[in-house]
Hints:
The protein is of the alpha/beta class. Helix content is 32%, strand content 20%. It has helices at 3-11, 43-54, 70-74, 85-89, 96-106, 113-132, 157-170, 224-230, 248-254, 307-315, 328-337, 342-345, 347-350, 364-371, 375-391, 473-489; strands at residues 24-25, 32-39, 59-62, 78-80, 140-142, 152-154, 174-176, 179-187, 192-200, 203-215, 238-239, 260-261, 269-272, 291-293, 322-327, 359-361, 417-426, 432-433, 440-442, 448-454. The radius of gyration is 23 Å and the shape is elongated. The protein has two domains: 3-232 and 240-263 and 430-489, FAD/NAD(P)-binding domain, CATH 3.50.50; 269-426, Succinate dehydrogenase/fumarate reductase flavoprotein, catalytic domain (Flavocytochrome C3, Chain A, domain 1, Alpha-Beta Complex), CATH 3.90.700.10. Strands 1, 2, 3, 7, 8, 9, 10, 19 and 20 form a nine-stranded mixed beta sheet that branches. Strands 11, 13, 14, 15, 16 and 17 form a six-stranded mixed beta sheet that branches. Flavin-adenine dinucleotide (FAD) binds at residues 39-45, 62-65, 70-72, 74-78, 180-181, 216-218, 240-242, 244-245, 248-249, 279, 427-428, 456-457, 470-474, 476. The site of flavin-adenine dinucleotide (FAD) has 42 residues, from helix 2, helix 3, strand 8, helix 9 and helix 16.
Amino acid sequence: MKRRAFLGLGAAAAVSPAVFAVPVNRPQKFDESYDVVIVGAGGAGLAAATEAVKNKLSAIVLEKESVVGGSSLICGGQWAVGGTQEQEKRRIKDSEELFIKDMMTTGQNQNDLDVVKAYVRETKALYEWMTKDLGVKPISVTLSGGMSVPRAHTFKPAEVINALRKFAVDGGAKVVTRAKAERLLWDHERNCIAGVRVSRRGTMVNIEAKKGVVLAAGGFSRNPKMLKKYAPLLENAAVITGLGTQGEGILMAQAYGADMIDTNYIKASYGFTLKPSTIKDMALTQFKGAIVINKTGRRFMDESISYKTQADIAFAQPEGKSWMVFDDNIRKTAMKMDPMQDGILWKSIDEGKCPPYVFMGGTIEEAAQKAGLDPKVVAETVKKYNSYVDAGKDPEFGRAGLASGQGKLVRIEKAPFFIFPSVGAMIGTYCGVRITPKAEVVDVFGETIPHLYAAGEMTGGVHGASYMTGTAFSKAMSFGRIAVRAISQRK
Ligand SMILES: Cc1cc2nc3c(=O)[nH]c(=O)nc-3n(C[C@H](O)[C@H](O)[C@H](O)COP(=O)(O)OP(=O)(O)OC[C@H]3O[C@@H](n4cnc5c(N)ncnc54)[C@H](O)[C@@H]3O)c2cc1C
């Protein structure tokens, strides 16, 4: 007898799901029935629903919040994709091969190559479908953390989410809000996941998934217990993720033995104002030429590395404090390149108003004085850094470019100058259940859990040890589609 079947038979009848993490038997009769039940209506869940429509599968998307979108709706909209027409127009040479290579380098080869390949292929197909058939368009293409060429296509996330939702709903998929998935249900005769127990607007219902369940319930930044367990150092970091990111999808899969991976690489993201509440509080100015200094007024890292690794290093500085230093040229470039972040953050400066979260001065010394840093040391740091730019070599930290060693370094020289106190904040957990390239959930013994699929932030394998900007939003949508396609193709 198979291990899971044994657990199902032995435990199910007497078990209360609130007490034991073992399979919960399906009821004799379900309240509702669909080919596919999708848990979570963020990018992953809604993309999964579009694929159900395309493959003529009946589908329901369960969303516990009163609005759809999750973290996907409030994200920065950066979508990494390689070899697009937008890149060609800008004479950017990119390819799927280079994208895969960059992913593996950024992830320090701790990511799963086959899963990465599946992601990179799918994100391009998805991008092409959405830009050509659903009419969503990128605002800009920019170089960001982990990329060797500009590859972050910035979209308005609400446009993307609305387009997915509309396609899914128009095609007959049901999207239900205030419907919280509580437990996965097991069919011990067919030996597979059979459905989901759901609390929907005050009533508990059992919903059958005839062909499969897709868990797309996001990460766990807002679950203090899980954060303490997997990332104790980030327990007190600011969190700005969607309200629903409480890890329930992961827990439901874990109850069936799902393996967890990449948990040792959970990181905050660097570049936020000291009290962030949305993605508009994040600067990407370091990738346009800003340097980062600590309380001593000196640099402490290569500012072109992934903003997740930057957050780790910045938290380790004296008192956990650090500041970006840049000039007006860098500010203007950053505003143009990242309209959804720097474009918003530094806008009022053009209108003659310096926002309260940055210190501005006619000289470096003046800005440093206002920031409470030693003006002389900061000025020396900038002078030294400018000499590295001129020499084309940074002997201290090996910064060889603006982002990931790419892009020509620029001097910090044009007044006014800015000093921006910045911290890391949690915008996601980026680790989770192990999946195959077909989005099947894999258990701790390496077996797939029959009829259980997962997509998006609650999965591991794509990012590995670090993170390329723009690969979480698109990973979510890509694996949502992959999961349902795999369900539709399964014999
Ligand atoms: C501020 C911010 C900025 C970001 N910027 C970027 C960016 O520019 N580029 C990028 O690539 N990534 C970015 N990310 C990360 C990226 O947005 C997410 O990793 C990705 O969108 C997650 O998609 P998802 O569908 O997996 O999860 P979500 O979009 O979070 O959706 C999960 C949904 O599941 C629901 N849910 C949870 N539990 C249950 C349950 N039990 N029952 C029913 N429903 C449930 C949630 O309420 C939620 O709506 C950003 C994230 C944040 C927070």
